[in-house]
Specification:
The chain has about 260 residues and is of the alpha+beta class. Among the domains are: about 40-140, Cytochrome C3, CATH 3.90.10.10; about 180-260, Cytochrome C3 (Alpha-Beta Complex), CATH 3.90.10. Helices cover about 25% and strands about 10% of the residues.
């Protein structure tokens, strides 16, 4: 067994150990999400207060159509789940979800009358705890997408490169016209663990989905090397962990980041 393999085993063992300790302290067992559930967010700031089932937002379908920047910058969705405070009246005015779910870009709260009756679409969003037949089935939708080992099992970057998905990054009356991004070259992030490969961070890959505004300066300082963070911070959902382990591929997939040859 070489040193690189040993390093990966030690890190994976540490992650598993940390998860078990956390589960024991909290009295819960962490469940690995099913592929179609990975990245889903349950939104319940207002729903149950108004006698509605919570909303289940599936990231996999939205990320197959839109960039992260369109929603988290242009539409103003916060990066932390349930911290935006969306209300039904906001959506009706065309904000947040209502910017798309307006019967034009995507389905709205109701459709035109069918056989004299108005068809409601409430359950398509307020689906928590319900058996809802969705228009798009994850497994059929992604059947020919390139696969990976973790998360929801899809290599989204490769899917875009192969033309399986085409992302929308502009919405009329919502987005602003931007000049093409001046994307920096890939940068190397030194690791603190002996024999662990350094990280090669690709600005190009992240800029396609998130732009620059999503990360800078709120998460990372614009100047290289100023923001100090550790793997412990990332595992606890900060910095890279704001996306990875929640929507982007999980932190267990070490080799997706630690790619520089030792």
């Amino acid at each position: 067994m070489n040193k690189l393999t040993k390093a990966f085993i030690l890190i994976l063992a540490a992650l598993i150990s940390t998860s078990l300790v956390y589960a024991e302290v909290k009295g819960v067992k962490k469940k690995r999400s099913l592929p179609h559930e990975y990245g889903n967010v349950v939104m319940n700031n207002q729903s149950e207060k108004n006698n509605m089932a919570p909303v289940v937002f599936n990231h996999w379908l939205h990320r197959a159509k839109y960039t992260c920047r369109l929603c988290h910058v242009d539409l103003g969705f916060a990066m932390q789940a349930n911290s935006t405070g969306i209300k039904e009246e906001d959506n009706k005015k065309g904000f947040y979800c209502g910017a798309c779910h307006n019967e034009k870009e995507a389905f709205g709260p109701s459709t035109k009358k069918v056989l004299g009756e108005e068809v409601k679409h409430c359950d398509r969003c307020h689906s928590f705890g319900k058996k809802v037949a969705f228009e798009k089935d994850f497994y059929k939708f992604t059947a020919d997408f390139p696969k990976e080992r973790f998360g929801n099992g899809i290599d989204w970057e490769k899917a875009e490169n192969e033309g399986k998905i085409k992302l929308t990054d502009f919405m009329e009356s919502i987005s602003i016209r931007r000049k093409p991004l001046n994307i920096p070259k890939d940068s190397q992030v030194k690791t603190q663990v002996s024999d662990m490969p350094d990280i090669i961070f690709s600005h190009k890959k992240h800029a396609v989905w998130s732009g620059c505004e999503l990360c800078h300066p709120d998460i990372f300082d614009v100047k290289k090397g100023v923001t100090a963070y550790s793997m412990s911070d990332i595992f606890s959902g900060k910095y890279c962990g704001l996306c990875h382990d929640k929507v982007s591929f999980p932190n267990l997939d070490c080799q997706r980041c630690h790619t520089k040859a030792v």
